[in-house]
Recover the amino acids of this structure.
């Protein structure tokens, strides 16, 4: 499955950064989603992002949609979101980090992994500070399940919801960074600092 | 760099395991919940996930 494009950069999967980012985004989203649904087994709040998305698009605001419909429709949007966040990481965020943050310049599995974690934690902050309180909060508040500022209350839980969301996004970012792993085809310590624009695509 | 990475990953794994065990001890039997216990479990599992990822990245051929 390993591929290499004409720019001299090879990827773990796919032959271009775009394809590799899409595949990495899909894998990361599926693994994190499944773990989120399993969280309650470890006494953590269940993170059912497909249903939460479903509540936004076809759910509670428009009357009680069947939970299965909310799960499936929300799941489609959730997976598309995750894949596109993976694509944005591959085409924009990862090269940018390599150029702006000097220690992350080398194209090695470890730096690629750290970049994935940073991108996952960035989305954790956006999810906890904006998405959950501003979009999910008003939907669930009339049903006695307010989300609270920065996800400090969710479905009867306190700050552990915020930390479980951190775990979810860590799993997502870790898988993204491990699978989207651009490396120099010739080996050695090639870095983003010396990459041309063509090589970054 | 590689040696420091593996040491950092081992430290994170150990810390994560300690936090996870502490959280499991603090957490009461269901259906009662403890904010502290579940927070420790979440942070412990997060550290373990990060450490496992570091091991994978470290072991991957560059």
């Amino acid at each position: 499955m390993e591929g290499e494009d004409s720019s001299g950069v090879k990827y773990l999967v796919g032959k271009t950064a775009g394809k590799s980012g899409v595949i990495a985004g899909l894998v990361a989203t599926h693994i994190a989603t499944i773990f989120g649904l399993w969280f309650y087994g470890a006494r953590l709040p269940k993170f059912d992002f497909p249903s939460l998305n479903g509540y936004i698009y076809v759910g509670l605001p428009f009357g009680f949609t069947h939970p299965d419909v909310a799960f499936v429709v929300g799941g489609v949007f959730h997976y598309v979101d995750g894949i596109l966040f993976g694509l944005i990481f591959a085409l924009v965020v990862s090269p940018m980090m390599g150029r702006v943050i000097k220690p992350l310049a080398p194209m090695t599995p470890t730096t690629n992994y750290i970049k994935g974690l940073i991108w996952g934690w960035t989305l954790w902050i956006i999810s906890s500070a904006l998405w959950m309180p501003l979009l999910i909060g008003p939907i669930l508040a009339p049903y006695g399940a307010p989300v609270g500022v920065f996800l400090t209350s969710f479905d009867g839980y306190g700050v552990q919801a915020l930390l479980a969301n951190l775990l979810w996004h860590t799993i997502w970012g870790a898988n993204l960074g491990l699978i989207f792993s651009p490396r120099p085809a010739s080996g050695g310590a090639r870095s983003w600092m010396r990459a041309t624009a063509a090589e970054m695509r | 760099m590689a040696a420091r990475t593996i040491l950092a990953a081992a430290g994170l794994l150990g810390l994560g395991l300690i936090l996870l065990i502490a959280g499991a001890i603090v957490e009461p039997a269901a259906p009662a919940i403890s904010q502290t216990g579940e927070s420790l479990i979440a942070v412990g599992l997060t550290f373990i996930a990060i450490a496992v990822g570091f091991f994978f990245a470290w072991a991957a051929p560059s």
